[in-house]
Amino acid sequence: MASIPTRAPRETAPVPEGHGPRERKSDARGTVTVPRLGDRRAASGCLWDACEALLSSADPHSVERALDQLRTVFECDGVALHAIGAKGHLEPWCARGEWQTKAGDLRECMSVPLFRGRERVGALDLRARKGQRWSPEQLALVRTASGALGAALGTRIELERLRHAPGRDAVTGLVDERAFHARMLEEVSRAERTGQPLAAIAIGIDHFEGVNRKYGKATGDEVLAECARVLKLAVREGDLLARLSGDRFGIVLADCDLAPARRLAERLRHSVEDHRFARVGRLSCSAGVAASPRDGTEATELVAAVESALGLAKKAGRRRTAASGPVHTH
User: Fold this and answer.
1) What backbone phi and psi angles, to 5 degrees, belong to 232?
2) For the domain 17-162, what is the CATH code?
3) Model confidence over 185-241: pLDDT tens digits?
């Protein structure tokens, strides 16, 4: 696993307006500002920005900007993020704000553990302003932040650890195409024995070859790695997410029929399109879905059907989901 970079705490100026929460369709042009505690909508956007920063490793300053925003939302003087390192110990990653204390400075501090499922993946430390006491609104926001940040941080740590493991894709840390086909064989056999449905999804990034041409292969690889983290956050724990060749990802969905698979494909597609990739910005993607026994009872048939469905979505104009067989697009 590539070690997470350690950043020393340092004092910083207040967050500049240009690094506030993302602009939304309903916001007037030029009115995006740093969120206040009472602005729950802006605070929610700020937390999503922080999660995006944890999913990206291309911009070394993205986590610093995200913590600056969280410091404003939490109305505290300091925010620090710790992550579980390669040896299983908490290691400092990034800290923003004021952390140097003087004798007699007894302001409140809070350390919130970050979990992904039942696994502890880090901690978020907060240092209150002088004379400040944590309000119920702030504590509720901290609880929300701990869940979202723990999921994003845990996904990043897991995939970083697995990038060089056997059967794993070196770029994304996901299982590779060979493991995807092996799992498909297992699930098809199990579905035949139990009579349960089985579905598969293929997702491809639209115009990915243009990203490689414009920004270079290194940036293209980082886009794939970020996309893997975004998708990993959105799938169920038991679903298999794999990196296929090129810009494609595959998902095996046990005990799942075509209709819920299509809904999940749409949700995955929107998750990728809502994400802001470092350097590249917004990207769209297309998805194909197939299900057994509708599209075949053999693993090769189901794989061919889901790849055909993805091809249909691309040919129909991209940025949509399609099923194999008769045209079904969203």
Assistant:
1) -60, -35
2) 3.30.450.40
3) 999 999 999 999 999 999 999 999 999 999 999 999 999 999 999 999 989 888 999
Helix, strand, coil percent content, the chain, rounded in steps of 5: 40, 20, 35
Q: Where in the chain is the domain with CATH 3.30.450.40?
A: 17-162
Give whole-number Cα distances, 41 to 35, 36, 320, in Å: 9, 10, 28
* Structural fold of domain 177-329: Alpha-Beta Plaits (3.30.70)
Place of tokens 């983290």: 229
**Residue for token digits 């064989």?**
185
- Rounded to whole angstroms, the Cα distance separating 41 from 34 reads 12
* Alpha-carbon gap, residue 108 to 134, rounded angstroms: 8
Q: Where in the chain is the domain with CATH 3.30.70.270?
A: 177-329
For the chain, the farthest-separated pair of C-alpha atoms sits apart, in whole angstroms, at: 74
